[in-house]
Write a structure and sequence with these properties.
The protein folds into three domains: 5-107, Homeodomain-like (Arc Repressor Mutant, subunit A), CATH 1.10.10.60; 114-210, 3-Layer(aba) Sandwich (Rossmann fold); 241-377, 3-Layer(aba) Sandwich (Rossmann fold), CATH 3.40.50.1980. 46% of the residues lie in helices and 12% in strands. The chain is built from 18 helices and eleven strands. Strand 2, helix 9 and strand 3 (163-166) form a beta-alpha-beta unit. The two termini are 41 Å apart. Residues 12-111 form the HTH araC/xylS-type domain.
Length: 380
């Protein structure tokens, strides 16, 4: 049992050794010796710390590293990948990779046959993945998603091997070029970020203008990468899910007028009813009735007093941290709001709700009805 801090530190060191030196074909006995344990005790302690056995951990790390090698090294062979992750038998590696990743290495490498990097403050990798293409580089927000490598959890597994660019900082052209992209998909960048990249002539930069609908991005990206035939099927599946959720929530959404807010640490954002992928989903697709005095599009920063004066029947809180909502809920003005007094405030767990791509939209819809109906707040 790992109770001594020094034992925990030793186990963390072993985990780091395993991760950093995958080409070394370690045995359980060798690893156990490093922490002065017998193999049985070591395996038990490791599983308690990591939730899986040392063998399972090594396999998972080797598959993850193999994906990165395949995506980040142009022209690498299956045999070279196998050797670099500590597996001498190329054919055993191929079988294991297919078992764990769902496709053999030769097929997996075709996910990045054309090497595409995404330079954007949006998760456009969602569209590429839905179209069957894995980008070699894509944006991430490490402070927003610290436990899943800077991306929502529903994208994490499919982006193993992709170099994640920190979108919370200024994009560095040198970092992008290290991934050897054949083509770059780029949107306009805000907050004063660079609007052009100094790239060699062989690099093709596709500039994608801002759009107000998620499927406009999907259609343009599909056209750029030659996957137009997949668009109809993706859109049809999303439409089917939208209709199912709309029908299920109809008794709730049709009674009263709604407002959507995002409670941030220093401000409250009151959202409009169109020109935003999630607001269009709520008000146009799922049948929510917007309050009469909402802004048409975008959002307004409002005070709690202004929010109370709105007299909305129902209030939906999105993307907010519980501590910020709790602080707001202690104010007298909040407690005077009609939706609060009528107990018509809804606060679903929406931290990972990103409706701008088909995978994110599908995630929202598949869990929306259940999540939403359980999110009613009866007391603060």
């Amino acid at each position: 049992m790992l109770t001594d801090p020094s034992e925990i530190d030793e186990m963390d060191e072993i985990i780091e050794i395993m991760r950093s030196d995958l080409s070394n074909p370690y045995t359980i006995c060798q690893l156990a010796e490093k922490v002065n344990m017998n193999p049985t005790s070591f395996t038990r302690a490791f599983k308690k710390r990591m939730g899986i056995s040392p063998k399972e951990f090594l396999i998972a790390e080797r598959i993850r590293a193999a994906k990165e090698l395949m995506l980040q090294n142009k022209g690498i062979t299956t045999k070279e990948v196998a050797l670099k992750v500590g597996m001498q038998d190329e054919f055993y590696f191929s079988r294991l990779f297919k078992q764990k990743a769902g496709s053999p290495p030769s097929v997996y490498m075709k996910r990045a046959e054309e090497r595409i990097a995404i330079v954007s403050q949006m998760f456009l990798q969602d569209h590429l993945l839905a179209l069957g293409i894995q980008p070699v580089a894509a944006p991430a927000y490490p402070s927003a998603y610290p436990k899943s490598r800077g991306v929502p959890r529903y994208l994490e597994k499919d982006l193993e091997g992709t170099h994640l660019l920190n979108a919370e900082q200024v994009f560095q052209p040198e970092e992008i070029l290290l991934t050897q992209p054949d083509r770059i998909l780029k949107t306009s960048l805000h907050n004063g970020q660079i609007q052009s990249l100094l790239l060699p002539h062989e690099q093709i930069v596709e500039h994608i203008p801002f759009k107000t609908n998620w499927n406009e991005y999907l259609r343009e990206i599909a056209q750029l990468v030659g996957r137009e035939r997949k668009v109809e099927q993706i859109e049809r599946e999303i439409e089917r899910l939208e209709k199912a959720v709309r029908d299920e929530l109809c008794p709730l959404t049709k009674r009263g007028k709604w407002a959507v807010i995002w409670v941030r640490r220093k401000e409250i954002r009151l959202y409009g009813y169109q020109d935003h992928a999630l607001l269009d989903l709520l008000y146009q697709k799922l049948g929510f009735e917007p309050h009469y005095h909402l802004p048409k599009s975008g959002y307004q920063v409002v005070s709690v007093e202004q929010l109370a004066q709105l007299h909305c029947d129902k209030l939906l809180i999105l993307w907010s941290h519980e501590c910020d909502v709790w602080k707001l809920a202690q104010t007298r003005e909040w407690k005077m709001m009609k939706a609060v007094q009528d107990q018509e405030v809804y606060f679903p767990n929406s931290q990972e709700w990103d409706p701008w791509g088909p995978l994110g939209r599908k995630k929202i819809l598949t869990e929306f009805a259940t999540t939403f109906q359980r999110s009613k707040v009866t007391a603060f």
